């Protein structure tokens, strides 16, 4: 029986380095699972770049969700306004049952998405939530490179995708919902 505790092995097994404290590990860093084991500086650089673009993609996907919401809302109000102008809309005189004064012609019922539209909206939310959760898990490794990639990606992603939110005022007049 060999009692030699020395290592004569020539294998170069690299164990995962995981730290819950701030670190700058590159080679042998592991993220989320053992299969995501960084074995070279190039692999680490690729991971940082991929995370940077994942955050940008997340911001662009958020923009896509906002655009979809605007599209379905615009279609709803366009369809209902054209129907109301022809006397067939929600506020037409045909719909009065108590003989009271006619309602304001510009007031439409609140928009509620159809089941298919809500399913699409839910898919947008699912992707955003899932990507955000994975990014949060990656940030919890406290790896400086990953955290900087997440911060830089959020900056550039917001820079590219948020031009649509500037200058919009959420008033009834801006939404075209004024009465008479």
Automatic annotation (TrEMBL):
Protein's membrane topology: Multi-pass membrane protein
Localization terms from the record: Membrane
TM ranges: 41-61, 122-141
Sample GO molecular function, one term: copper ion transmembrane transporter activity
Pfam family, one: Ctr
Statement: the UniProt record of this protein carries the keyword NAD: no
Family affiliation: Belongs to the copper transporter (Ctr) (TC 1.A.56) family. SLC31A subfamily.
Protein name as it appears in the record: Copper transport protein
Organism: Hypsizygus marmoreus
Gene name for this UniProt entry: CTR4
